[in-house]
């Protein structure tokens, strides 16, 4: 009985992953986007487990340098990990109508682990049917 439940969940996850890849390949086109702005903020997070319960504690959003410093030096924040919230705004040419559009992506880490700068080109996926819809690659 337990094995059947695990198999159902595994098949569901595999099906979702397959559909996601199909959707990206059929409904989106890879285009280059010009980055207009980047907002990189951080928060600190700590997960504690007590038996079967799990508690997650987080801080407010703050500058990443300050978060790194606090987790190293301040006794209250030791044991916390620094998490990023990156918002990238960009302009791209829509494959739907050939017009320049703007959009944004939110990420928890930079693509390829390399910080991006305004003015750089970022490859994205733009919808073939909805002019404003984009996805990360």
Automatic annotation (TrEMBL):
It comes from the Bacteria. This is Uncharacterized protein. It comes from Bradyrhizobium jicamae.
